[in-house]
Amino acid sequence: MTLIDGKALATKMQAELATKTARLKEEKGLIPGLVVILVGEDAASQVYVRNKERSALAAGFNSQVVRLPETTTEAELLDLIEKYNQDEAWHGILVQLPLPEHIDEEKVLFAISPEKDVDGFHPTNMGKLWSGHAVMVPSTPAGIMEMFKEYQVDLTGKSAVVIGRSNIVGKPMAQLLMDANATVTIAHSRTKNLAELARQADILVVAIGRGHFVTKEFVKEGAVVIDVGMNRDENGKLIGDVKFDEVAPVASMITPVPGGVGPMTITMLMEQTYEAALRNS
Ligand code: GUN
Q1: Residue 36 in 3-state DSSP?
Q2: Residue 126 has pLDDT above 90, yes or no
Q3: pLDDT-derived band at 280, boundaries 50, 70, 90
Q4: Binning pLDDT at 50, 70 and 90, where does residue 145 land?
Q5: How far is the CA of 157 from the centre of ligand 1 (A)?
Q6: Which pLDDT value is given to residue 48?
Q7: N- or C-end of the chain: fewer Cβ atoms within 10 A?
């Protein structure tokens, strides 16, 4: 069994990105800029946003985090997004999700200029991805594709099962796997005989958001298992969607949690910001 070390790959890519960024600054006087907007006090979001800021600064980007109170109105948030849409110093705009209940998430994601939508959540970018002309790709599935590349996982003709149908992970993941010539099934919490279906997979990507949901009964001998889960167990420990200890001996390759998909997600967000700066300056 090979452990897919997302942290090591992310560290390597971040170092390369810092080098590219320094060169861009020297040769063109261009510094990629990323704005992250956080509304409210969600504890997990606070951690994610801090990590994004740290990563942007380490890459040599201009980084701004706008922390807004829970009481911020939708109109105030939309005004702020428009301000950054217009400001050429900022190449990437990310609004951390989830948003407070009183703000319409779809409206907010629509408001971000597609050219600056480094999350790839704007319908224009989602549509481009689905029509095979991807520009901005959601970071988590993009990071998983990088891991397949690094570990030379040949996807052509393989049976891939994605458990989870979110716009952030499941749907774009399925599309990217299809682009790489895998035969893809999207499964979810309502899928009948889920374990049996998952057991058909050469490639199993799990993004269902339930701690230790996938047991060895879900996994074919020799499958590649990617765990997108970030859950807390009853002791507050970070755990994946996959029961690592019993699945690892069955799998040919597997990502750990932490240290697997998570670090790659942030790295891809930075890559995407760098690319956006190149395209739009
Ligand atoms: N919340 C959880 N994951 C994400 C993500 O990838 N992007 C944003 N904007 N919010 C998130």
Answers
A1: strand
A2: yes
A3: confident
A4: very high
A5: 31
A6: 95
A7: N
Q: Is the pLDDT of residue 281 over 90?
A: no
User: Is 164 marked as a binding-site residue?
Assistant: yes
Whether 262 has a binding-site annotation, put simply, is no
Residue 144 and residue 256 in one domain = yes
Detail the DSSP E strand segments found in the chain: 2-3, 33-39, 62-68, 92-95, 159-163, 183-187, 203-206, 224-227, 231-232, 238-239, 253-254
Domain boundary among 113, 148, 177: 113
> Looking at ligand 1, which atom is closest to the CA of residue 269?
6
Number of domains, the chain? 2
Phi, psi (rounded to 5 degrees) for 227? -110, 110
The verdict on residue 71 lying in a domain is yes
pLDDT tens by residue, 186-221? 999 999 999 999 999 999 999 999 999 999 999 999
Count CA atoms within 13 Å of residue 188 on its CB side: 10
Q: Is residue 6 part of a domain?
A: no
User: 14 in a domain, yes or no?
Assistant: no
Whole-angstrom distance, CA of residue 135 vs CA of residue 152? 23
The 8-class DSSP code of residue 103 comes to: S
Domain match, 225 and 189 both: yes
> Are 154 and 108 in a shared domain?
no
pLDDT tens digits for 223-271?
A: 999 999 999 999 999 999 999 999 999 999 999 999 999 999 999 999 9
Q: Domain range for residue 58?
A: 29-113
Q: Which of 45, 168, 269 to mutate to test the pocket of ligand 1 (most atoms within 8 A of CB)?
A: 168
